[in-house]
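Narrative summary of target 7.
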Amino acid sequence: MLSDETIIVTGASQGLGASMAKRFATEGANVVLTARNEEKLQDVASTADGETLVIRSDVTDEKAVQRVVSETQEQYGTITGLVNNAAIGLLSLYDEQHPLYEVNVEDFRRILEVNVTGAFLYSKHVVPEMLSQGRGNVINISSGLGRRASTNWGPYVTSKWALEGMTQTQALELESTGVNVNGLDPGGRVDTGFWDHLPETERDNILDIDVMNDAAVQLLAQGPDGITGESMPAQDWEQKFS
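Modeled conformation, tokenized:
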């Protein structure tokens, strides 16, 4: 379904990003795996059934982002898909949560840098390539916490609300260009390391790691006249495409 597509996936070294990236490869895409941990990226690439390219980078470093885009173009000639998946939260940093007034300033900035600025930088440098072709698909991986508030999740909630706004804004800016921009979220807690702290009594509703794969494939397979400016959980996207 994704043959002839070239897709960059950020945060592809583990979790949802790794799962989506391997599915894209299986669907025939050229998949560029990027994250900070090259060893983990290589592990993902070695288990992927398809074409992959590993490029280590930090989403907050513009020169590193430009290098990923440049090396992708050199290897495959073009870029047709971007999945802004890289994200962190207080649980990623400390395995704990805090009310906003207790959050360290540098931690707040770091979370916003990864979750929002990272998506901005990749979109900034990938979208012009898509515009030159008159087609492309950008998926920003959001969260239910991008549409509602939750105590002790302040930095993460703030970042995902910002990402929702970025998604809507860019979709409007790119309207009628053939480049689609949409938001996708798993629709609940997923079986990743992010939730390892949960006791067994709270794990009954944990979703499988591949929960977004089908919806992501459908979004990336869209042509220039595809759906744009929407953001919803994977299950809702699947119903929309059915």
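The chain has a mean pLDDT of 92.
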